[in-house]
Specification:
The chain is built from 16 helices and 10 strands. It is an alpha/beta fold. The strands form 2 sheets. The chain has an 8-stranded mixed β-sheet, with helices on both faces. Strands 9-10 form a two-stranded antiparallel ribbon. A hairpin with a 5-residue loop joins strand 9 and strand 10. Helix 3 (about 65-90) runs antiparallel to helix 16 (about 425-445). The longest helix has about 35 residues, at about 335-365. GO terms for molecular function: GTP binding. This is Dynamin-type G domain-containing protein. InterPro entries: DUF5600, Dynamin_N, EHD_N, G_DYNAMIN_dom, P-loop_NTPase. It is found in: Cell membrane; Endosome membrane.
Length: about 450
């Protein structure tokens, strides 16, 4: 019988698709099946396929080779197995937009957050050893927009609307925040050695006091969360004279930590402006302020220094500040080597989130009544916590992997559950295959980026 396209694809995935036996065909036709000829040149001119490069004696690939190979594998898994499930259950209506190639190919990103005049732009200038196009430095709020500082062949700036339509860059998802935000987004390109390895994101100063009443025209906290989700490192900048955490800053920190705790660091900038005794008091006050927002037993790593191109104002702690600055710079320069592991980690988190989202949506769709849908919908929003518990218990899912309750409730208010199909067992199986089979096989094939050898190469299993 004639096979459908879906049946052929499924047979290929299961390994049950067998090619016909062509033994003896080369002798019958006088052509060799490897692209050469049986005693003669190939009349079609087709070269034999290049043999795969054998692994090195150490059985490991370099960090760059591992990055390219693993990322290509992640792209394939996402497009063929994860993205179809996201589209089926409207994952992007609740979480982030579908990933594009630029998201996988993006360089490691560093996000800088802090109040105005704590030295964010000066910090970037210190790293690059020059100002970036569009940069303004001063004592009052000077950066009123998000600057994405990238490596480029020449100095130029790119408006946000243009930046968000370039699929080769990982910023297409920002278009969902509207034109008001995109008018406050700008790409800044310049030739720079450091920017060949990482991308820096400078942000507007966090508002405090009466200035918090100012309407930015877009959701600042959600934009910060979007960048933090995709960043490899998030730096929260303070200075000895700005240790308070405003309501807006508190919401931004909470949103950033929701993206990932392990990549958040604190920088106490301008620490050379106080004496040793004052620095101890400032450090204690900073940790107290942070503890009111970050309510976990783990303490965030704090770097103490002054990141500007000038001599220290107070030289009492020069040795300490030098060591701290060196530690932070080493962490930044080490980001490219750790980037592959982060991409895999984020991919796993997204796949798990997609699976949980599919279960939640299917459960609600199964309860949808024929009549009285609006009242039922309102009740389900109020009962969402019980729904989460039921889905977690029914499918053996970890409660910590579920989306934030209030955030999910808010998204559900305008969502039409009727457009969700019933649960597809094959869809869930495909996600399970990604986590239990495909990813381990990918890392076994190209090297495990979570393990490292002494010389910084990615080790194989």
């Amino acid at each position: 019988r004639e096979l459908s396209v879906d049946e052929l694809r499924l047979a290929e995935e299961n390994g049950s698709l067998q090619l016909p036996d062509l033994e003896g065909l080369d002798k019958a036709t006088g052509l060799a099946l490897d692209g050469g000829a049986a005693g003669a040149s190939n009349p079609f001119g087709a070269p034999a396929p290049a043999p795969r490069k054998a692994p090195s004696a150490k059985g490991a690939l370099s960090a760059t080779q591992c990055y390219s190979s693993v990322v290509d594998g992640l792209k394939h898994l996402y497009k063929t197995k994860v993205k179809p499930v996201e589209e089926l259950y409207k994952f992007s209506d609740f979480m982030s937009a579908p990933l594009v190639d630029g998201d996988f190919d993006a360089k490691p990103t560093v996000l800088l957050l802090g109040q105005y005049s704590v030295g964010k732009s000066t910090f970037i200038k210190h790293l690059l050893k020059r100002e970036y196009p569009g940069c303004h430095i001063g004592p009052e709020p000077t950066t009123d927009r998000f600057f994405v500082v990238m490596e480029g062949p020449e100095e130029r700036t790119t408006p946000g609307n243009t930046l968000c339509v370039q699929t080769s860059k990982p910023f297409t998802g920002l278009s969902s925040f509207g034109t008001s935000f995109m008018s406050k987004l700008e790409g800044s390109e310049l030739p720079n050695e450091l920017l060949k390895s990482i991308t820096l994101v400078d942000t507007p100063g966090v508002l405090s006091g009466e200035k918090q009443r100012t309407d930015r025209g877009y959701d600042f906290v959600r934009v910060c969360q979007w960048f933090a989700t995709r960043a490899d490192l998030v730096l929260l900048l303070f200075d000895p004279h700005k240790l308070d955490i405003s309501d807006e800053f508190k919401r931004a920190i909470s949103a950033v930590r929701m993206a990932s705790d392990d990549k958040v660091r604190v920088v106490l900038n301008k620490a050379d402006q106080v004496s040793t005794q004052q620095l101890m008091r400032v450090y204690g006050a900073l940790m107290w302020s942070i503890s009111r927002v970050v309510k976990t037993p783990e303490v965030l790593r704090v770097y103490i220094g002054n990141f500007r191109d000038a001599e220290y104002m107070v030289k009492d702690n020069a040795e300490l500040l030098d060591r701290e600055r060196e530690d932070l710079l080493n962490d930044l320069y080490d980001l490219p080597r750790r980037s592959v592991a982060r991409k895999i980690n984020e991919f796993v988190k997204r796949t798990r989130a997609t699976k949980i989202h599919a279960y939640i949506m299917s459960y609600l769709r199964g309860k949808l009544p024929t009549f009285g849908k609006e009242k039922w919908h309102a009740r389900q929003i109020e009962k969402m916590e019980a729904t989460f518990r039921h889905v977690a218990a029914q499918h053996g899912l970890a409660a910590g992997d579920f989306p934030p309750l209030e955030y999910f409730r808010e998204k559900m208010r305008d969502f039409k559950i009727a457009k969700i199909p019933s649960i597809s067992k094959r869809s869930i199986e495909r996600l399970d295959e990604v986590l239990s089979n495909d990813l381990p096989a990918l890392m076994k094939e190209y090297g495990n980026p979570f393990a490292s050898t002494a010389d910084g190469e990615a080790a194989s299993y």
